[in-house]
Write a structure and sequence with these properties.
alpha/beta, Quinone Oxidoreductase, Chain A, domain 1, Rossmann fold, 2 domains, seven-stranded mixed β-sheet, six-stranded parallel β-sheet, 16 strands, globular
Length: about 350
């Protein structure tokens, strides 16, 4: 008889206040092959991508669709071609958007995008990190080509959306690289959160960005990481970026973007999508596992800390619906994690 596992999934795309938007299921336990790890899931986190994938639309899934792209757990079994891990290893990772997510007791993931869990963290504290860490790391060190070892120390970076999941780890990674960090936040608690994470300055993104920078004596910035809203800040970013500067955004645009406004300053613009490597099976897929391992070492040395702000006990449909609803409000700080079955 085939083994089963608990999972939270959907078959219809419904408003989150509908009890059927996310449901509890018993599904077949997967079996690893090739380079896959079978991970026993101990904790998961929720990201904006979960909310976007689950958003209401007419489609109906023939089989339950599992979401969840932030996980920490223990390797249960390995596929025949696995070389980097063995059963019993504690791991953390984000997974692939093209495969079932991690909101299940057991989950298959390619070993190349998996990191060893920071030894000093609980599973819950580790599960808060992978997707946002990969996103911020690739934004800074691959797309913006900032030297993470300090050759760009002293340059300025504006992080739009400093208190969100990506901004929270991004502030810390930017400080690690020696940058002068200006984050944006709009509430007292989010301002304090950004300062506690190491931001040198915090400006209010409800006000014109140029005005906020002028108040702290900064005219233009060398880099901009937009972790909030590309359309809303497009013209403002073009205005405040320094000549030959670089901008990266992780949020898709709703309206056409006028790239011409960047031409006079010879500004570089790049997109970051952390699922690109796993979606297209790129030759450098292992870079994601490697960066997670590097960040784990920084965490264990107390250079970087987890961005976990709340742990919800028990992974189930009701609790995931509650966390999705809070994510949709746009007022969450850091990361919310669900732990245990």
């Amino acid at each position: 008889m085939k083994e089963t596992m608990k999972a939270v999934a959907l078959t219809r795309y419904l408003p989150i206040n509908d009890p059927e938007s996310l449901q509890d299921f018993e599904l077949p336990k997967p079996v690893p092959s090739k380079r896959d790890l079978l991970v026993r899931i101990e904790a998961v986190s929720v990201n904006p991508v979960d909310v976007k994938v689950r958003a209401p639309k007419p489609a109906i899934e023939a089989e339950p669709k599992i979401l969840g792209w932030d996980a920490a757990g223990v390797v249960e079994q390995v596929g025949g071609n696995v070389t980097l891990f063995r059963p019993g290893d504690e791991v953390y990772y984000a997974g692939s958007i093209t495969r079932p997510g991690a909101n299940s007791e057991y989950h298959l993931v390619d070993e190349r995008i998996v990191g060893k869990k920071p030894a000093s963290l609980t599973f819950a504290a580790a599960a808060a990190l992978p997707l946002t860490t990969i996103t911020a790391w690739e934004t800074f060190f691959e797309r913006l080509e900032i030297d993470r070892l300090g050759d760009d120390a002293g340059k300025t970076i504006l992080i739009i959306g400093g208190a969100g999941g990506v901004g929270s780890i991004g502030i810390q990674l930017a400080k690690f690289a020696g940058l002068k960090v200006i984050a944006t936040a709009s509430r007292r608690e989010t301002l304090e959160w950004c300062i506690n994470l190491g931001a040198d300055y915090v400006i209010d993104h409800r006000q014109p960005l140029k005005t906020g920078l002028e108040k702290i004596g900064i005219g233009q910035v060398d880099y901009i990481a937009n972790f909030s809203n590309t359309d809303l800040y497009w013209t403002a970013m073009a205005d405040i970026i320094a000549p030959e500067g670089a901008i990266c955004s992780i949020v898709e645009n709703a309206e056409p973007l006028d790239l011409n406004i960047l031409k006079r300053k010879s500004v570089t613009f790049a997109w970051e999508f952390m699922f690109t490597k796993s979606m297209f099976n790129t030759p450098n897929m292992e870079a994601q596992g490697a960066l997670l391992n590097e960040v784990a070492k920084l965490i264990d040395k107390d250079v970087i800390r987890t961005t976990l702000t709340e742990t919800v006990p028990t992974i189930n449909a009701k609790n995931l619906r509650d966390v999705h609803e809070r994510m949709e409000s746009g007022r969450s700080i850091g990361k919310i994690v669900l732990a245990g079955w």
